[in-house]
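Please check this chain.
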Amino acid sequence: MENWLVAIRKSKGLSQKEVAEQVQISQPAYFAIEKEQCKPTVKNAKRIAAVLGFEWTRFYEDGAEGKGE
């Protein structure tokens, strides 16, 4: 079962590497965010949200893991 961030990225037809490059972070750093091993900084949350087209505050909402599936 995919989390909401993976589902959004895949719906846009982007790879982890492509998103990471656009956000200007490493692919392993983006992978860790997708796997919910860490939360992005506010700056990176805004960049990821801009690339993928969602509200950046979603990273910090309670229960965000189950949304958007």
The longest helix spans residues 42-52. Helices lie at 4-11, 16-23, 27-34, 42-52. The domain at 4-66 is CATH 1.10.260.40 (434 Repressor (Amino-terminal Domain)).
